[in-house]
UniProtKB/TrEMBL annotation:
It comes from the Eukaryota. SMART domains: WD40 (SM00320). This is WD40-repeat-containing domain protein. Keywords: Repeat, WD repeat. Signal peptide: none annotated. Transmembrane segments: none annotated.
Length: 323
């Protein structure tokens, strides 16, 4: 099995085509591909997921941290989510797996030690494709590839108490998020479908579909920015598309060239407090766009032969890339 490494970049000079970034270092050690990356809000810890399960990294020292467990029978890690709760002193990592498992690790106070506190399996198990948490209601929304969408209320010990479980026929969710409802109580849930481009809005307590829209393309990666009221997604045939969260209306398309016949999915992310959008590519470049005018502000070359699929961004505009 091949080894993969993660590259960490920060604002600086000499790396991007326009000289905006510098390579901080690489994090080698994954066997096989790296499917997902997520950094904590303060940018101190990185989680990376793949066939070996989850790896944890100290981004201050660029060293690996101990983890409670590997993949085992849970399968590859498919999605990651960091959670901060006002009643909890440390970070909480939630992740989903290929076997339909949802797992939570909790940081032991201010140390770099994590312990496993939650494990459960979704209905009709399949690859978990999306996780979202609403701190105001302590609710965790989850979806998997075989049409199932579930909502849980998490207690103080991160035990999952079911609220609803719905199945949408002939639908493959690829991302899930909470959407503000302008004072109407608990946020609604938005789910994006990968193969047909349908986006559903679900009622917060029952899971009833209350709105449907269509983006007209297969969807790769999706990133929501609740603060700005927008989300971006990978239109695998055109590039990165920016949408308004309240209306699901497309605002702008940021073209990302394709060099291969197959339209490969790419992950996308917001950066620089939401003013920039970052996208991978099928030809070794990471594209950085200005969200407001659509200009390419920089391109980082990872490897001309590489598929740059996995991207995340931490504060201070440090980019973390795995290809």
């Amino acid at each position: 099995m091949s080894r993969s490494s993660i590259a960490s970049y920060k604002a600086g000079t000499t790396v991007g085509t326009k000289g905006s970034y510098v390579l901080r270092g690489t994090l080698p050690g994954h066997q096989g591909g790296v499917k997902c990356l997520k950094a904590t809000e303060d940018g101190k810890i990185l989680a990376s997921g793949g066939s070996e399960g989850v790896h944890l990294w100290d981004l201050t020292t660029l060293t690996s941290l101990a983890r409670p467990t590997g993949a085992g029978i849970r399968g590859s890690t498919s999605t990651l989510l960091w959670i901060r709760r006002e009643d909890q002193p440390g970070e909480i990592l939630a992740y989903g797996t290929q076997a339909g498992m949802v797992v939570c690790w909790r940081q032991a106070k201010t140390t770099m030690v994590f312990e496993e506190v939650t494990v459960f399996q979704m209905t009709h198990p399949a690859e978990v494709t999306g996780l979202a948490f609403d701190a105001g209601s302590n609710r965790l929304a989850v979806c998997h590839r075989q049409s199932v969408i579930q909502l849980y209320e998490m207690d103080d010990d991160m035990n999952a108490n079911p609220i609803f479980s719905v199945t949408v026929p002939e639908y493959g969710p690829t991302a899930i998020a909470f959407r503000e409802t302008r004072g109407r109580g608990v946020p609604e849930i938005v789910v994006c479908g990968w193969h047909d481009g349908r986006i559903f809005t679900l009622e917060a307590d029952t899971g009833k579909i209350i709105a449907t829209s269509q983006v007209g393309s297969t969807i790769g990666g999706v990133e929501f920015n609740r603060k700005k009221g927008v989300f971006c997604l990978d239109d695998v045939f055109q590039g990165t598309a920016l949408y308004k969260t309240d209306t699901n209306a497309r605002v702008r398309t940021f073209a990302v060239p394709r060099t291969k016949l197959a339209a490969l999915p790419r992950q996308v992310a917001f950066a620089d407090d939401g003013s920039s959008i970052v996208s991978g590519s099928d030809h070794g470049l990471l594209y950085v766009f200005d969200r407001r005018n659509g200009d390419v502000t920089d391109m980082l070359c990872v490897d001309p032969k590489d598929w740059v699929q996995t991207v995340t961004v931490r504060p201070q505009f440090c980019l973390l890339i795995a290809s």
